């Protein structure tokens, strides 16, 4: 009935579909390619090209190409010449073991299944389509798989397994989409529409057909338009939209004539006959059916469709005997093909015809069968609609789940990558931190050394290496701050030192200062602390010392300097120092002690130098010289 074969003509050659440019000297591969491309526009040319390719391949065998060409010819003949189709299928099967492309087996199985369908043997055809799907899946050949799924899905629709059929067709659709095969997408859309129509969901069917028709018109695909228009006509027929149905079938007829496409013409004429019957024009219907009959090739389903319409027309023409004969013949074919809708319609018409004949018993039987078949069909349609909804829901859920999984995978991969990156960064950061820590430690060490040195430098007199004035004042203050402690301070000043500088130069003066510092250091024994106050003045702090001890200490210093040999710097000259000393009093401070010692020193200078003078206690007015 439906333009199943028109669809299949486009379908099974999917693996070869590619528009090939016409070349001058063509290889078998190019011929096969062009043959595939021509399937849609010009089946006769397609056949001629496939035969040409086979002729060339006889001299230069190539199993893949030979199998392809034979499958092409199998497809071509399956609609026209069963024996020829059979021969090509056998030839393809013989050469298949030598072919490299494992998936080719699926295409062959599909054509073999198709031949059985053409013979009205759907029960035998189904296992072949199932094998085709399995073979394509095993070969991981998406193109072949799409073709096999298409064939199986279509047939499942025919036998009323709508939900499963829809699943197959949708899988085929997805594969064709992925393979970027728009023409096959279109064919699949058509098949989905046909299936909806069978399911009784005419609105969906019409929607799919119209979408597909629009695309085909835009691309100028005349042959495909004929197929779609015919199917659209069938939808209108089912919905009793007779004007629309007529318009569709008329156009199919026009295209069929334009393309010399006999099968399309036969289908269109059957459709127009159905419209004529609906409009109570049985004569016209019979005429149209007669024309259709003359055009058809071995297509049992179409023959049964024609017989059904003939039966309707003949009954209308009050020729119930002929009508019942036609209807019974149609019924047998429909029943074998498990075509529920047509079987049901044939039963109903036969019941009426038998009533006309006065065969009440037979009429009743047919009425009962009609009820059974139509009830079963309706139940099935309902069940399948539910199943379809469930599959749609499951598919949508699965897709969502897959999308979610994909997203999750992507996310966890991103997370892993980030973790790895973070890990690397962490390692780098750790290394940098360690390096930094080492640097800081080194810097800190150096800083500590530096600051210690700086501190040392800050507290040390550069010239002599003795503690400087600040250091000495700190030490003295610290001593004085200790409760109950006492100490003495001694200041020594070189006598007439300026004259050394003046006579021998400043550098010699420095040398002499260093030599004196050495002598003083030697003279000032522990626990005395010796430092340089500045210029040519030195100071000593004597912990736990009284005035007498300070005096003795001063004298020792003076002797140490006096015995110093400075001939190398200032030949013929002795160095002397004047010393001022003082002892601490309770509550004393560094400033006051230094001042007293300095006063004593001044007194020593004034008294003629080269001597030690002890400062009197605060209440003593005079200075005591040693
Ligand atoms: P008096 O006996 O009165 O102390 O006489 P004086 O010349 O030693 O004392 P005065 O205060 O007049 O001179 C001190 C000189 O010491 C002046 C200065 O040039 C010199 N002097 C101070 N510090 C240094 C120094 O670090 N190196 C050298 N070479 N000379 C210095
Ligand atoms: Mg001085
Ligand atoms: Mg001096």
In short:
By secondary structure, the protein is mainly alpha-helical.
Q: What would you say this structure looks like, in words?
A:
The termini are far apart. It contains 24 helices and six strands. Among the domains are: 299-388, Serine Threonine Protein Phosphatase 5, Tetratricopeptide repeat (Alpha Horseshoe), CATH 1.25.40.10; 398-458; 469-625, 2-Layer Sandwich (Alpha-Beta Plaits). Mean pLDDT is 86; it is low at 1-23 and 619-626. It has helices spanning 4-11, 28-41, 43-59, 63-78, 82-95, 104-118, 122-138, 142-158, 162-178, 182-198, 202-219, 222-238, 242-259, 262-278, 282-295, 300-316, 320-336, 340-356, 360-459, 469-481, 497-504, 506-523, 547-562, 590-606, and strands spanning 487-494, 529-534, 537-543, 577-583, 612-614, 624-625. Helix 21 packs antiparallel against helix 22. It is mainly alpha-helical and 626 residues long. The protein is rod-shaped, with a radius of gyration of 60 Å. Strands 2-3-1-4-5-6 form a six-stranded mixed β-sheet, with helices on both faces. A hairpin with a 2-residue loop joins strand 2 and strand 3 (537-543). The structure holds 3'-deoxy-guanosine-5'-triphosphate (GH3) and magnesium ion (MG) (2 copies). One magnesium ion binds at residues 493, 535-537. One magnesium ion (MG) binds next to strand 1.
């Amino acid at each position: 009935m439906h333009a199943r074969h028109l669809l299949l003509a486009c379908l099974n050659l999917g693996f070869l579909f590619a528009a090939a440019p016409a070349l001058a000297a063509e290889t078998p591969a190019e011929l096969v390619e062009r043959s595939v491309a021509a399937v849609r526009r010009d089946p006769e040319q397609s056949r001629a090209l496939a035969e040409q390719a086979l002729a060339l391949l006889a001299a230069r065998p190539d199993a893949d190409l030979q199998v392809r060409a034979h499958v092409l010819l199998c497809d071509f003949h399956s609609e026209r010449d069963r024996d020829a189709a059979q021969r090509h299928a056998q030839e393809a099967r013989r050469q298949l073991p030598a072919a490299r492309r494992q998936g080719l087996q699926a295409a062959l199985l599909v054509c073999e299944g198709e031949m059985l369908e053409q013979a009205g043997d759907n029960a035998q055809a189904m296992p072949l389509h199932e094998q085709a799907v399995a073979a394509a899946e095993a070969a991981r050949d998406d193109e072949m798989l799409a073709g096999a799924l298409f064939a199986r899905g279509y047939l499942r629709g025919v036998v009323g397994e709508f939900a499963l059929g829809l699943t197959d067709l949708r899988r085929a659709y997805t594969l064709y989409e992925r393979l970027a095969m728009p023409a096959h997408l279109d064919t699949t859309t058509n098949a989905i529409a046909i299936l909806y129509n069978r399911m009784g969901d005419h609105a969906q069917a019409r929607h799919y057909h119209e979408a597909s028709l629009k695309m085909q018109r835009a691309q100028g695909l005349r042959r495909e338009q004929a197929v779609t228009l015919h199917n659209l006509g069938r939808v209108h027929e089912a919905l009793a939209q007779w004007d629309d149905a007529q318009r569709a079938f008329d156009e199919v007829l026009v295209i069929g004539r334009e393309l010399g496409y006999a099968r399309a013409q036969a289908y269109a004429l059957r459709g127009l006959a159905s419209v004529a019957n609906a409009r109570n024009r049985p004569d016209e219907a019979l005429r149209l059916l007669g024309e259709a009959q003359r055009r058809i090739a071995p297509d049992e389903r179409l023959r049964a469709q024609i017989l059904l319409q003939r039966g309707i027309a003949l009954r209308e023409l009050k020729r119930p005997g002929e009508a019942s004969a036609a209807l019974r013949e149609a019924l047998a074919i429909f029943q074998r093909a498990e075509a529920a809708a047509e079987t049901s319609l044939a039963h109903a018409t036969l019941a009426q015809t038998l009533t006309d004949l006065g065969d009440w018993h037979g009429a009743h039987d047919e009425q009962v069968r009609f009820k059974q078949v139509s009830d079963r069909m309706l139940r099935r349609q309902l069940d399948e609609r539910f199943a379809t909804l469930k599959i749609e829901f499951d598919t949508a859920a699965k897709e969502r789940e897959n999308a979610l999984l994909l997203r999750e995978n992507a996310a966890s991969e991103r997370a892993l990558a980030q973790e790895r990156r973070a890990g690397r960064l962490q390692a780098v950061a750790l290394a940098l931190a360690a390096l930094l820590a080492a640097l800081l430690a080194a810097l800190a060490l150096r800083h500590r050394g530096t600051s210690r040195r700086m501190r040392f430098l800050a507290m040390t007199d550069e010239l002599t290496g003795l503690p400087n004035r600040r250091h000495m004042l700190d030490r003295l203050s610290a001593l004085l701050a200790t409760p109950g402690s006492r100490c003495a301070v001694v200041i020594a000043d070189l006598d007439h030192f300026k004259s050394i500088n003046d006579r021998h130069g400043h550098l010699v003066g420095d040398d002499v200062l260093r030599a004196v510092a050495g002598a003083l250091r030697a003279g000032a024994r522990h626990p005395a602390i010796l430092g340089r106050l500045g210029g040519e003045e030195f100071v000593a702090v004597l912990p736990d010392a009284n005035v007498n001890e300070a005096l003795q200490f001063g004298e020792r210093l003076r002797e140490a300097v006096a015995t110093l040999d400075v001939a190398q710097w200032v030949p013929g000259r002795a160095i002397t120092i004047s010393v001022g000393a003082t002892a601490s009093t309770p509550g004393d401070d560094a400033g006051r002690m230094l001042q007293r010692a300095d006063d004593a020193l001044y007194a020593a200078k004034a008294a003629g130098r080269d001597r030690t003078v002890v400062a009197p206690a605060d209440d003593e007015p005079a200075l005591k010289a040693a």
